[in-house]
Structure formats: structure tokens, C-alpha cells
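[job 0412] stage=fold_complex status=start
inputs:
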Amino acid sequence: MNRRFYVTTPIYYVNDVPHIGHAYTTIAADILARYNRLMGKQVFFLTGTDEHGQKVEKAAQEKGKTPKEHADLMVGNFKKLWVKLNISEHGFIRTTDTEHIKTVQGLLQMLWDRGEIEKRSYAGWYCTPDERFWTEKDLIDGKCPDCGRPVEEIQEENYFFLMSKYQDRLIKYIEDNPSYVLPETRRNEVLGFLKNNTLGDLCISRPKQRLSWGIPLPFDESFVTYVWFDALVNYFSATRYLVPGAEDARLGEFWWPANHHLIGKDILTTHAVYWSTMLMALNLPLPINIFAHGWWTVNGKKMSKSLRNVIDPHDMVDKYGVDAFRYFLLREVPFGLDGDFSEQALINRINTDLANDLGNLLSRFIAMAIKYFEGKIEISESLEEFKVHCVKSLAVAMDEQNWSHLRFNLILENIWGIVSEANNLIAREEPWKLAKDNQERLKAVMFNIWNSLRVTALLVYPFMPDTAEKMWNQLGFKSLSDEIRGNRTEIFSWDWKPSYDIKVSKAEHLFPRIETKEAKKK
Ligand code: ME8
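[job 0412] stage=fold_complex status=done
writing structure:
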């Protein structure tokens, strides 16, 4: 089994402050990073910022700053948010890093030397906000087919990456590797596009007189590199200088290719088509998977500054806590489908799944353990029927295919399967009655609930790390990470038993209910 795991987020533009969409992708990547660390893998988790190009140059101009000054300021917003969202250890790449620039130029030179890049005169329609050329027939009502904004006709000399010659090879690659692009609907979309269109070559330069904020082409200083060519290379260039132990040059090969590029569906073509063909031309392995998740709207509307409906993740964390926010995003909608964000939906999830199902289970259990046994839990045998149900959910929650296909909400549903089995067990067995006349059964029931909470804490950890630690402490363990390090393989098994006496302890409720006017009415 491969012992290393490399996951990336898109590198975000520094033209604006981060919002819930950026938070979403980064939290998902964090969950994968944490889970794979839990499984004992060496993990490299990469995020960062996309700092070149017209958009950033324009945003800087508006603020009266140089693009680099502007980027330096904006980067702080992303870094601050990752701390607030409890994003675990990661590499942070900036496309203005000297090492990244060197790698981009090295790869461009290689492609140029191999005849994979050509200089041509070109006339086309240019969408400035999207920084993309379109042909006449691409336009819809004379406007950009992607964003609907006006385009301008431009004629100039430029450099082209000969992407078109890789069309057939890319189709075959995607057909031969069913999980290369996921989810399946996105894979079909890419295949449909590739089969029904003739792929053009990709303009990878911009004349300096039009745009100066970019990486100069190594073979023609009067041009800078197209921002997407520069940006996509980040995933590879980081393996040269940001990976753990990067001084060792061989580690670049160790870390490449990435296991997952997580992206939003808005940037699927650039990844599935441009990046894949760039790698083919460079004779580099393709990533194992590109996963395009869905789009968040807010109360049914696209987020936009003019509608003043942009959700600031800082506000959500301040109001509802980081774990509830992380849980909601991954539980509410299957990763890959679009979702609608509303505070009411978040409150509903907190009150039902978190406060009612999980929080109450833990606090009732602890209260009973203290009342009946002064907090001591005696190691007992598994109750067979209970075990069968829980083990089924545990297997789904840890299934490799579910993790490699990023089925976060299915995984969470199954973790909650264990939680509800435990709640049902309490309802069925009525420990308060057993306390009067069947101490042996009571001990067994209490141990089994304890065990289900132990497993739940482990499984919940990648999604809600603070909650997992709190549960773990209340259940009588010292440190989740120490415990896992010592027992990695066995500790996830239902039948694992601690080698020391267990004493649970009372603490604050994990998730207090959120009382709203509507909730009160109900
Ligand atoms: O595209 N719902 O950067 P970007 C879900 N720099 N996810 C969303 C979202 C929404 N409403 N809005 C944004 C770029 N995202 C390039 C990427 S990569 C080599 C270069 C997330 O700042 C989602 O991950 O516009 C999307 O792909 C990304 O933010 C776009 O961020």
C-alpha cells in the first residue's frame, strides 16, 4: 500500500477576501489530510494563492498598490481563515515564490526546446475578467460564454502550447481511468466536450505591453506567462520545495503525482484538459484524481457582492463554532452536488444531529456512568446484535472506496448510524431499570455504549477535530493522537479494548441547542 498521500486545493485569487466557497474546498482537503494521517500515512496537504494576472493587477490598481504589495496583504486573510477553520498542517504556496517561478520557467523552456510551444499570430475575442480567448463561434450574443460579460477583439502575436495533439490521448486516458475525473457526471461532461469538439491549442503568453504582472517567458522576455499555465504548475512546483524534507531533491518524485486535486466545478476544464495535457507533454504522471465539487448558493441565489449575500466564514464560526460549520458543509450536500446555504439549515443540523443525537448521547451516558458506577467502566463483552449493526456502519465509514471517491456525507451518515444505534440501545435496555435489578447487564450495556462513543470519536475526528478531542477526554483517554500512534491498526476495530481501567468524567455539553424564535415555536 502506498504510504504517502498528497492532496491539494485550488490556489485562490488574491483579488478578494475568502468566502464560504473557499472555506468549503479547504475544509474538505483538511478532512482528507487528517483521515490519511490517522491511517498512518505521510501526508502533504497543499493550498495557497494565485497572485499573477490581470484580475490581481486590476484589484491592486484600484487600491493604489503594486500587485505584490496587494498580494502580501491579501495572503494574510487566507492564512488567518485557515487558523480559524482549524486547518491542519499544510504547505502554503504563493505563485510569487521564487522557487515556483523558477519551476514554471524551467518547464516552459523544456516544452519550448521540445517543440511543444509555437509562436503564432492570433486574432480572437478576449474576456478580460476571465483572462480567456474565445473564437467568434464560442460567443453567446457577442458576449463571453462563461461569464456573459463583454469581450474585446484582439489581434496579436502569442505563444501557443500545442494542446490539440493530445486530444485523443486524453480521451483514452479518461476512458481507461474511470476515477480520474470525479464525480461521474463531471467525467461525462469532460468526455462529451472532448469528443464533440476539436481541441484548440492553448495561448500561454500575454504581451508585456498589455499585461506586465506575470512570469516572464524564459525564451522571450517581451511576454509573460498566461496566469492559468503558471497557476496549474503550482501543484508540481510545491513538490520541489514545500514538501516535508524538501532539501532532498528525490522527494519531488516521491510526492508527485497528487492523490487528489480538489476543485470547484467552475475550474474543471482548466484542470481536466489544460493541466492533463500539459503533464502529458512534460512526460510527467497525471494526478490520480481530479474531484470537482458543487457550488454553494445562498438562500437560492448566487453569492455576489452586489446582492450583499456573501457568507463570511469568520462570522459563521463566531456564531456557531468551527466544528458545527465544518460538519454542516460536508453533511448537508453530497460532495459533488450543488448546495444551498442558509443559517436556518445550519441551525437545524446543530440542533438535531449534533446537540440531540450526539451531544445528548454523550452527556446522558456520562451522567449514568457517574450515577451508577462513579464513572468507572468495566470492560465487558460486546452485545452481539448491537455490534453487528455498528460494525456494518463502521465498515462503510472506513471503506477505502468511499474515501477515495470523497463520499463525505455517506461516511457521516454511517457514523451517525452508530450514534443512533447507541441511542436505540439506551431506549431498549432502559439502564435506569437495569440499575435496580440487573447489575451485570447494566455493566455490559454501559461498556457497549462507551465503546460506540470511542469509535465515534475516532471517526468524527477528521471532520470535527475539537469535538473528537473533547469526547475522547470525557471517555477517559488522555490524548487522542498519542493513543492512535500507539495502536494504529487495532484501535479502529470494534473489539479493541483498553489495557487500563476506564473512568469517564463530566464536562460541558458538546453542542448546546441553538434557540431561535422558530425553534421555540416548534
Ligand atoms: O479559480 N461554492 O481561484 P478562485 C463552492 N485561482 N466553491 C466555491 C465557490 C462557491 N460558491 N466559490 C469559490 C481560481 N469556490 C484560480 C484557481 S488553481 C490552479 C487556480 C472555491 O479564488 C472552489 O474551490 O476563484 C473554486 O474552484 C475556487 O474557490 C475558485 O477560487
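[job 0412] summary: Residues 4-162+201-256 form a domain with the Rossmann fold fold (CATH 3.40.50.620).
[job 0412] exit 0
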